[in-house]
């Protein structure tokens, strides 16, 4: 090593900085390409039509943060945000109260209390807590996760119990009775299951969230089968598949599920970067299932975040990078969705789902 590059105090620091800039040693995670193309760049500050965001979480913790969030929502054109609390009991009540200053701007959904799921007699207490949350103001349920190891609702976990399990029947039926849609996250993106090697298309994110080292979980396709059995079992309950049911890599498979199951919607949250590399196929999918897809974010409260989603949905921009937002090295493209589709995905499909509970409100 040449003398001027040697720093006895911080030798590692210097060589790391050098590696980051040398084309011989640059790592994928440090790669920050800039588009070379002189083509249109669309800046969309506010969505073309009003939005109901069907997938968010209680990111804002204080009254001041909630106020700032509402201001951001006003500026970007989000009329209402559904807060998936995943919580029950005192935890749900506290979040509910925090956001109660803006009943027109936030809708609160609760979780499931899965306590005692592996003991005889599970069911009635969980149903009772659901009814209590409904009374308190919960309008739906979510986000309930099953990444293959069993159901998870925030801190409440049921390893080994999947949504099609008979033990879940009473709860899922009750949701239908109460007009509470369920936001259900099944599986995870496909590259998390694949080998962590040079062929992995989503390596930058896949390695961080890897599932390939968890051999005992149900596979992605296994979880889709479980989801479809659940949908068939509970036809009067509305379900929203979070993140395209993690079938963003195989939208045709999601299309089949949507066609077979009239009680299924899908949210598009946190899968913008995963669909923007295939703009022609993705926009055809939006066109075909425009009445079954709902807008969602799941990515915080900041204005630039919302604006990236508008650019992808509304513009026809090509080959742009949003690495800081999404952590993928891919370039993205806009879908240029029609006004008619945008209105459905941004708003009118969500109003149909949210209307379910007002029909049942007692
Ligand atoms: Zn989420």
Give, in order, the helices and strands.
HEHEHEHEEEHEHHEHEHHEHHH
Mean pLDDT level = 93
Spatial separation of the terminal alpha carbons: 77 Å
Strand order in space, largest sheet: 4-7-8-9-10
Low-confidence stretches: 1-7
Provide the structure class.
Answer: alpha/beta
Report what the structure shows.
- The protein is an alpha/beta fold.
- The protein is 38% helix and 12% strand.
- It has helices at residues 11-21, 63-76, 89-99, 124-136, 169-178, 203-206, 220-233, 251-260, 272-275, 279-288, 303-314, 323-326, 339-360, and strands spanning 51-56, 78-84, 106-109, 141-146, 150-153, 156-159, 182-186, 239-241, 264-267, 293-294.
- The strands form 3 sheets. Strands 4-7-8-9-10 form a 5-stranded parallel β-sheet. The chain has a 3-stranded parallel β-sheet with strand order 1-2-3.
- Strand 5 (150-153) and strand 6 form a beta hairpin.
- Helix 4 (124-136) runs parallel beside helix 5 (169-178).
- It is globular.
- It starts with 10 loop residues before the first helix and ends with a helix.
- 44% of the residues are buried.
- Mean pLDDT is 93; it is low at 1-7.
- The protein binds zinc ion.
- Residues 55, 57, 84, 143, 298 line the site of zinc ion (ZN).
């Amino acid at each position: 090593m040449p003398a001027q590059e040697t720093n006895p105090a911080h030798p590692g620091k210097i060589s790391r900085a050098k590696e980051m800039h040398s084309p011989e040693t640059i790592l994928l995670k440090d790669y920050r390409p800039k588009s070379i193309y002189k083509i249109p760049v669309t800046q969309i500050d506010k969505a073309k039509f009003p939005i109901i965001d069907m997938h968010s979480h209680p990111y804002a913790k204080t009254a001041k943060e909630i106020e700032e969030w509402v201001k951001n929502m006003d500026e970007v054109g989000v009329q209402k945000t559904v807060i998936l609390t995943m919580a029950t009991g005192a935890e749900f009540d506290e979040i509910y109260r925090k956001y109660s200053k803006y009943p027109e701007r936030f809708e609160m959904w609760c979780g499931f209390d899965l306590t005692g799921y592996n003991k005889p007699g599970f069911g009635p207490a969980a149903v009772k807590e659901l009814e209590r949350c409904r009374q308190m103001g919960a309008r739906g349920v979510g986000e309930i996760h099953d990444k293959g190891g069993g159901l998870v609702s925030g801190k409440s976990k049921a390893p080994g119990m999947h949504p099609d399990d008979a033990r879940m029947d009473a709860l899922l039926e009750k949701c239908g009775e109460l007009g509470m849609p369920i936001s259900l996250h099944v599986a995870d993106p496909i590259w998390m299951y694949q080998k962590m090697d040079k062929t992995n298309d989503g390596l930058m994110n896949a390695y961080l969230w890897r599932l390939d080292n968890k051999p005992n979980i149900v596979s992605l396709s296994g979880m889709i089968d479980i989801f479809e059995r659940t949908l068939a079992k509970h036809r009067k309950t509305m379900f929203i598949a979070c993140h395209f049911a993690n079938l963003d890599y195989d939208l045709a498979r999601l299309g089949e599920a949507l066609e077979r199951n009239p009680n299924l919607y899908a949210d598009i949250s946190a899968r913008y970067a995963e669909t923007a590399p295939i703009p022609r196929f993705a926009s055809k999918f939006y066109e075909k299932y425009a009445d079954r897809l709902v807008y969602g974010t799941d990515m915080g409260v900041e204005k630039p975040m919302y604006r990236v989603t508008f650019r992808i949905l509304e513009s026809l921009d090509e080959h742009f990078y949003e690495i800081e937002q999404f952590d993928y090295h891919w370039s993205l493209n806009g879908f240029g969705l029609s006004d008619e589709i945008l209105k459905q995905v941004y708003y009118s499909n969500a109003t149909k789902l949210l209307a379910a509970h007002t029909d049942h409100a007692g």
